[in-house]
Amino acid sequence: PLHSKPQAVITFPGELVSNRTDLQLAESYLLRFGYTESEGKTRSRHVSMGKALRRMQKQLGLEETGELDASTLDAMRAPRCGVPDVGR
Amino acid sequence: FLTFEGDLKWDHNDLTYRVLNYSPDLDASVIDDAFARAFKVWSDVTPLTFSRLQSGEADIMIQFGTQEHGDGYPFDGKDGLLAHAFPPGKGVQGDAHFDDDEFWTLGTGIVVKTSYGNANGAACHFPFTFEGQSYSTCISEGRSDGLPWCATTPNYDTDKVYGFCPSELLYTYDGNSDGAKCVFPFIFDGKSYDACTTDGRSDGYRWCGTTASFDQDKKYGFCPNRDTAVIGGNSQGDPCVFPFTFLSQTYSACTSEGRQDGKLWCATTSNYDTDHKWGFCPDQGYSLFLVAAHEFGHSLGLDHSSVREALMYPMYSYIKDFHLHPDDVSGIQFLYGRGSGPAPTTQAPDIPDQATTQAEDTTTTEGDSPLPTEPSPVDPSSDACKMNSFDAITEINGELHFFKSGNYWKSSVSRKGAIQGPFRISATWPALPALIDTAFQDVLTKKLFFFSGRRFWVYTGSSVVGPRGIEKLGIGKEAERISGALQRGRGKVLLFSGEKYWRLDVKVQKVDKGYPRLTDDTFAGVPLNAHDVFLYQGKYHFCMDRFYWRMTPRYQVEQVGYVKYDILNCP
After folding, report:
1. Strands B104-105 and B128-130
2. Which of B63, B75, B78, B81 is most worth mutating to test chain A (most A CB atoms within 10 A of its CB)?
3. pLDDT tens figures, B465-482
4. Is the pLDDT of residue B368 over 50?
5. Which residue of B77, B168, B437, B462 shows the fewest CB atoms closer than 10 Å?
6. Average pLDDT in the B100-108 region?
7. What 3-state class would DSSP assign to B37?
8. C-alpha count within 13 angstroms, C-beta hemisphere, residue B265
9. Are the C-beta atoms of residues B300 and A79 closer than 8 Å to each other?
10. Cross-strand bridge partners of residue B505
11. For residues B393 and B534, is the Cβ–Cβ distance under 8 A?
């Protein structure tokens, strides 16, 4: 049998959305689309993340878990309009 | 639907737009057509008109750009953010921007519109056969000038119908050369160029000189993408080069090796390992028409909708046969009205309230009869399906009741399509006025509550108490009328008015402490100016005009539809 070589994953130059962690992706998504405020305005990062996730899940018709689950991450990676969902 | 804060809208209906530049992905005529169709989506259902300007300041300025493109809201490369637009107003307000790191198509893959030849500008047909071989890209085989061409039917050998594919050897776009083709080599900043370049620009667009010396003549144009051009990466617009070397392996087609996301890519030189030049291979792309129609919704004053099927939902999805969703229609008509589109169906005028002079808080009847007399229809030709909207809808004894201007119809929940009526409200409930804002049946006692203006009546069988003022319930003067009611378990009912709601304890006939609350805090995604709210089959229904929003008990809007067709089951 053929032995498949281990897949190499590289960072492609010029790619803006690189290897962010899921948490980093979520934080930037929630901030960009108005579900959270910038740091300094939030009282508790953890509490605000859960609340913001619920708000986002409700707005986008996802199951409201308040958790960074697979369907929420998929939604965050989906192509979309750049206009914020909440606020100005 | 949602509108922007303050209901931002244009103060005139004759709007103008201007296309500032084009994308290399699509022929200019295809782009113009996509924008025109996108505007038509909105003008079809409103009094708005859209005229195109070729110069000067238009209400809606449209441009393609990449990354930071001058407004402080940068795009993010391929995928992710596709476009954005600003709400109505002066300056950048109203403008729509499209991310040119996306691959713009009509939603189903590359559109290669031909020029010249004998195909009258038809699109390439891939694959096509030429001299017995099948091709899925434009080719320069059979020509000595290197111009790429394609057949516009499946078989060139039999049909001989062809056209030339987009190429810098044929024409440029935008710039200052009226579409003249590139001249190679050309001199820029003292250096000679044999191909289109992004040098001298920060936006990544490929350009060329259209004379032998840009330095001398300053004549230039932008290069259209060839059908083999890559998207994004660091070689936007350059063609794939096959074969190429990647991690010492040779590839003769696009690959997803080296990536975790499965996207296909290729190198744009023969060796990625040494040159690190790459881009994504063309995919289905994003429909410029659909994205533009969404963005123009913002330009007109619509914010994002939470209805997944609505055009104004923030995520992109391709729809083959596009029709504007009722949620979008009611949103835009909320701002601008209906226009000269399909005329609304005949709507009977509201009958003036005959009971307004009655004293409040009086018991008018206390009878023994357990049930009101079964009414007989007043005019069978008066059809519920001709009503545009209803004053109130509620379920009484297992039948949906639709109240309108002194009449009501009944529809059996179990027998769909069987509509009875109209019946006179006064014949069944003599104490009631013609206009009923809201009605509900208490789950426990089966008492019927009717609301009209700031008054309410309670029927038990044929006995009635009322009218009484809603202040007796603890509802202040901020509520001009009760627009809807939702039974919540035993003995509790939510009463809606404006953008607030109260929780009524039916037994004590008082609203609970802690109310009113904002409807939007709990029922996000439904119209805040719903003229009727009712419970039907365990789900919340919010009505506005002809439409209803159905919300689950978990507060998720799961459907928007027509009252007439989906609830009344009209043909």
Report:
1. unpaired
2. B81
3. 888 899 999 998 888 899
4. no
5. B462
6. 92
7. helix
8. 30
9. no
10. B492, B510
11. yes
**Contacts of residue B257, Cβ cutoff 8 Å, sequence gap at least 6:** A7, A8, B246, B247, B249, B251
Beta strands in B243-344 (DSSP E): 244-246, 249-251, 265-267, 278-280, 286-287
A82 with B82: Cβ contact below 8 A: yes
Paired tokens of B321? 């046969």
Residues B456 and B506: their CA atoms lie apart, in Å, by 13
Tokens of B106: 């009509």
Determine whether the interchain pair A81/B295 forms a contact, defined as Cβ–Cβ distance below 8 Å. yes
Q: Vertex B388, ends B558 and B50: CA angle to 5°?
A: 80
Is residue B295 part of the annotated active site? The answer reads yes
Model ipTM value: 0.86
Q: Does A82 touch chain B (CB under 8 A)?
A: yes
Q: Please tell me which of the candidates A7, A58, A80 has its beta carbon nearest to residue B555.
A: A58
| Gap between the Cα atoms of A15 and B371, Å rounded | 73
Pick from A62-66, B2-6, B245-249: least confident: B2-6
Q: Which of A7, A9, A79 sits opposite B79 (nearest CB)?
A: A79
pLDDT of B381 > 80? The answer is no
Is residue B19 within 8 A of residue B62, CB to CB? The reply is yes
- A11 to chain B, any CB pair closer than 8 A? The answer is no
Q: Which amino acid is at A46?
A: H
B379: left (phi over 0), alpha (psi -120 to 50) or beta: beta
Both tokens assigned to B261 = 């996301």
